Amino acid sequence: MDAKGKAFRYGNNVDTDVIIPARYLNTTDPKELASHCMEDIDANFVKQVKAGDIMVANHNFGCGSSREHAPLAIKAAGISCVIASSFARIFYRNSINIGLAILECEEAVQGIKAGDTVSVDFSSGTIKNESTGESWSAQPFPPFIQKMIKADGLINYLRKEAQA
Amino acid sequence: MSMTMSQKILAAHAKVDAVQPGQLVMADLDLVLGNDITAPVAIKEFAKFGTDRVFDKKKIALVPDHFTPNKDIKAAQQCKMMREFAHEKEIENYFEIGAMGIEHALLPEQGLVDAGDLIIGADSHTCTYGALGAFSTGVGSTDMAAAMATGKAWFKVPAALRFNLSGKLPAWVSGKDLILHIIGMIGVDGALYKSMEFTGEGVSSLTMDDRFTICNMAIEAGAKNGIFGVDEIALEYLAAHCTRKPVIFSADEDAEYEKTYEIDLSTIRPTVSFPHLPDNTRTIDEVGEIRIDQVVIGSCTNGRISDLRVAAQILKGRKVDPRVRTIIFPATQNIYLQAMDEGLLKIFVQAGAVVSTPTCGPCLGGHMGILAEGERAVATTNRNFVGRMGHVGSEVYLASPAVAAASALTGYITNPETIKEN
Hints:
The structure holds 2 protein chains of 2 kinds.
Chain A: E1 3-9, H1 16-19, H2 30-34, H3 45-48, E2 54-57, H4 69-76, E3 81-84, H5 89-98, E4 102-104, H6 106-110, E5 117-121, E6 126-129, E7 135-137, H7 143-150, H8 154-163
Parallel strand pairs in A: 1-2, 2-3, 3-4
Antiparallel strand pairs in A: 1-5, 5-6, 6-7
Helix pairs in contact in A: 7-8
Chain B: H1 5-13, E1 24-28, E2 31-35, H2 38-48, E3 60-63, H3 73-88, E4 93-94, H4 103-109, E5 118-121, E6 135-138, H5 141-150, E7 152-156, E8 160-166, H6 175-186, E9 195-199, H7 208-216, E10 225-228, H8 232-241, E11 259-264, E12 271-273, E13 281-283, E14 294-298, H9 299-302, H10 305-315, E15 325-329, H11 333-341, H12 344-351, E16 354-355, E17 376-379, E18 395-398, H13 401-410
Parallel strand pairs in B: 2-3, 2-5, 3-4, 5-6, 8-9, 8-11, 9-10, 14-15, 14-17, 15-16, 17-18
Antiparallel strand pairs in B: 1-7, 12-13
């Protein structure tokens, strides 16, 4: 098991403007970004999130801008994994590149409520709702992407590969 | 095997004979773009790479356009970081205030985009350059950093949707109305991960500016890229701006599209996206009475000369509603000069509008036109998400320059067809 925490639950088309509003993009500091994460749709998120928690959403999560500040803010807020029915493509790519774990699994999304405790095993792609006992299988990441997430992102991964 | 236009450009840059949807390829890039919001993150990542040099000083473009002229101290620090990086790495295409413009209007104008190019930019609207027959897509800052170091990026080859256009757009209907109509039809994730390829005899009736607007908003349908074939109109634009020889790719006749949409341009109505998603569209006939507080005409979507001409045609000799703050921002210095030469800026000021230096400011709620709680704007920009232009309780209605200008006059969202010719 690689991630375990309480679920924060969101709907369709969560865009990067609500994940981190543009008015805060005058900084690149992940901690400062995290302090405003989701505030335009969920003012309680920042107050309640604990390290290891999990974000669960429906379709097209992360649509809109290419700002890498969005996955950086989620990661720095302490979220260990985002599970969604589908992701917008730039957000998907950015998350992998910065080492934020993300999984697509429609069934899991349907079976998780806000506040449920959820665990994720990245190597098998198993998602378990510890509160209800249900579990689902998402397509696991191929090994190189798992390594990239463990290395904390693309650049660190490429450097490690070059040294190896 | 048969390929779409987008797939052919990827195959050529990956130096392989053919690619198929879903295949992962590593490809050589012709241009890497960043701005004052995304480049600072990329520069930090680039530093971790442990290399002193960028892959090619000519093939990187850095444009301080989002929070410029610097809106506050933090924005000034970010711009300074990008400026110093550009200077230290001797990047040739850094555009200082005075030379800069909104990146997606600026790069084609400056001749940095050619047909057949493979371009990535750390800005989601990088898909704009498909209008000139390039494969062009938005990425994040880490991809930009890796690309500045290596000149390469990995791509998952996209499947494609085809939009086959016939007929001609009616008066007062533009490329903006067409792309809003398409996004309304397929949804904000209707083209997720895919190419949107625009084909058919109707293409020849679309101006270059219409095509830039259409490709610009491909991302609002979730697309990886939008692309037009290279015809006389595109070649004429390239000949006037780009010194490189165009490389023309075209789709195979039997190229596979997941779906083909047939669109008769003559049936498109002025179209408005209601809050808070670009796919929440209504035709102007279905809008009803919507009182507005602000009009914004400009942005990477609609800040080009033909957009300003349409707005001027409507505003000439008239006054905007005194309760509507009307902000017009030409997208580049050249467009600004051209609008000045043509007398458009005078028309705007006499109508009671303000004219701004080029900036992305209001579009993303940065500066130069932020909305208060409960306020509504009609904007020619590209996104109307919650809080996009300011207060979380404000609203943005996306529309064409014609609808925006007509609405500025009346204070309500207005059909430009109802404004009598001067």
